[in-house]
Amino acid sequence: MPLPIINSIASWVLKQRIHQMELFLKYPNEVQEELLMNLIRLSEGTLVGRNYDFFTIRSYQTFNERVPISTYEDLQPLIEKTRQGEQNIFWPTPIKWFAKSSGTTNAKSKFIPVSNEALEDCHYKGSKDLLCLYLNNNEDSNLFIGKSLRLGGSSQIYENNNTYFGDLSAILIENMPIWAEFSSTPSSRVSLMSEWEAKIPAIIKEAKNENVTSFAGVPSWMLVLLHKVLEENDKQSLFDIWPNLEVYFHGGVSFDPYREQYKKILPRNEFQYYEIYNASEGFFAIQDLNNSNDLLLMLDYGIFYEFIPMDVFGTGQEKAIRLSEVELHKNYAIVITTNSGLWRYLVGDTVRFTSLNPYRIRVTGRTKHHINVFGEELMVENTDRAIARTCELTNSEIVDYTVAPIFMKDKEKGAHEWIIEFKKTPENTETFQKILDETLQSLNSDYEAKRYNNMTLNPLVLQVARPGLFYDWLKEQDKLGGQHKIPRLSNQRDYLEQLKGMQLSVK
Q: What one-character DSSP code corresponds to residue 305?
C-alpha cells in the first residue's frame, strides 16, 4: 500500500477519537465523578476495598472522608505483597508489571504497579490521543509517511516471582502494539539496551537511513542524541539528514531551558513542538493547541484527580479538593486514584491551572523540589523561565543546573547558590548572574520581597560547572538516559555539594 494512503487512513482513524473527547470537554466533572464510582465498584472485593468498605461508598464526600491520602512509602507494603505474587490487594485484575523508578529524592527504588487496564486505557490511549490532537491541528501532516525516532529509558525488563519490572518506557515497548512498532525507530532490541553509551551509536546506526518525521523523548537526553547525529554526519541542521521532520513530542523535563538550542538545529518556523505530561503512575495531560505551553488534562484515562493547594501543603491543614473546586493560577499538588489501584496517591508533582474551560494545566515543579528556606517559595517553573530568558539576553546556552540555599550563619544573610554547566558560556558571568537574579525577582514576588534591599537574601551566587559535570554525576549514580536528572531545586545542599566535590575530577 502506498505511503500517502497509509498516512491518510491512519490520520482518519486517529481523528475519530476527537468526538469521544468532546464528552469530557463538555461534562468534565460528571465524567470524573462517574469514573471514580466505577473504580470503587470494580475494587469492592479487593483487600483495600474491604478495609475501607468500598461497598458503602456512594459519593465523593464519603470517599474523601474514609480513604487517606497516601505516599509511596504508605503503599509500599501492599505493593511488595503483589510483587511477591499475591493478587486482588489494591486492584481486582492481576498486576504483573511494575514501573521501576528510583525517583530523585532518595536512592531507594519505587515499583509503581501498571495494570493491563492502565496500559491500554491510559498509557497507549494517551499516545494515540497525542497523535490525534496533533493531526487534528495540522491537517496537512505527513507524519505517517515516515517513522518516529524514540528515545526511551535505559533499563531492560527483569522477572521476579512471575512479575516483571523495568523503566516505564521499557514496559511500554515490551507491550507495544504492532502498529506502534512498525512506525518507530530504532527497533525494540536497541530501544531496550541498558548501556546508554553503547545505545547512542546503535540508535544512530539504525535511524540515519530511515525517513524520520518526528522525535519522541526527554529534551535533555534527546539533545545529546541529536548533537551526536549532527556530529557524525557533519551537518548543522537535522533537516539535512531527515528533510521530512515536522514535530517533536516531548515531556519529562521543562522544555524552556532547551528551546533555543532546538531552534538552532531545527531551523524551520513551521516545525512543531508538542508537550506531554506523563509518569510511571499514568498519562495525565497533552498539549492540544499549536504553539502553546498549556496542557489539556485528560479526564477519561481511568484516573480520578484531586488537588492540594500548595499554600497549605505540608502544614497539617492540607485538604484535597476535586477538579470542580480548583482556581486559576494557584499551585496545587496532584493526588490521583487510578485503574492500577493507586488510591489517593500523592504523585509528587505540582501544577497550576491556566484554563478552567477546558481544564488546562502547566507543570510547575515537584512538591519536594522547591526552595522555601526563607519564605521565597521558588518553583522550578520560575527558575526554568529565568534561565531561558537570561540565556537569550546573554547569548549563552546551558546543559543543566541545580540550586540550593546558602543558610544564614551568625549575622550573615542567606542566599541561593547556583551551579550551572554551560554549553555556550556567557561573555561575562557576573552580568549573567545579575540578570538571572533580576529576572527571578520579576517572576516571583516572594523572592523579590526577600531580595528587597538585601533584607533577607543576598544576591544569588553562581558557580560555573566544568564540562561534563552533570553527565558524570548521573553516570556515578547509574542514572544515564531516560527521564533521570538531578533535582533542579532543593532545600538541602546534598546534590550541590556532591557536584562541587566532583568539580576537579575528570572521568
A: E
For 283, the 3-state DSSP assignment is strand
The mean per-residue pLDDT over the stretch 471-477 comes to 86
What's the distance, CA 435 to chain centroid?
28
Sequential DSSP letters for 429-498:
HHHHHHHHHHHHHHH-HHHHHHHGGGSSBPPPEEEEPPTTHHHHHHHHTT--STT----SB-SSSHHHHH
Looking at domain 380-502, its CATH architecture is 2-Layer Sandwich (3.30)
Residue 168 near residue 196, CB atoms below 8 Å: no
Three-state secondary-structure class, residue 405:
strand
Helix 125-137 crosses helix 3-15 at what angle (to 10 degrees)?
110
Signed CA dihedral, 225, 227, 231, 234: sign only: positive
CB 295 within 8 A of CB 360: yes
Report the half-sphere exposure of 151 (CA within 13 A, side-chain side): 30
d(CA 143, CA 214): 7
Amino acid at 402: T
Average pLDDT over residues 482-496: 81
Residue 17 neighbours by CB distance under 10 Å: 16
To the nearest 10 degrees (0 to 180), the angle between helices 469-476 and 494-502 is: 110
Between the CA of residue 16 and those of 133, 135, 324, 476, what are the distances in Å? Answer: 11, 11, 28, 47
Greatest CA span in the chain, whole angstroms? 76
Q: Can you give the residue ranges of every domain in the chain?
A: 1-367, 380-502
| pTM: predicted TM-score of the whole model, two decimal places | 0.83
Position 375 scores a pLDDT of 73
- Using one digit for the tens of pLDDT, what is the confidence trace for 393-403? 999 999 999 99
Class of CATH domain 1-367: alpha beta
pLDDT tens digit sequence for 367-423: 777 787 777 878 888 999 999 999 999 999 999 999 999 987 767 888 999 999 999
In angstroms, rounded to a whole number, what is the distance separating the alpha carbons of residues 382 and 447? Answer: 10
Give 38's Cβ-side CA count (13 Å radius).
Answer: 13
Q: Which long-range contacts (CB under 8 A, 24 or more apart) does 425-428 make?
A: 425/396, 425/464, 426/394, 426/395, 426/396, 427/394, 427/395, 428/394
Burial level of 420, CB count in 10 A (0-12/13-18/19+)?
buried
Q: CB-hemisphere CA count at 13 Å for 100?
A: 19
Strands of 110-114's sheet in order across? 110-114, 97-101, 163-166, 158-160
Let me know if the fold of 1-367 is the same as that of 380-502: no
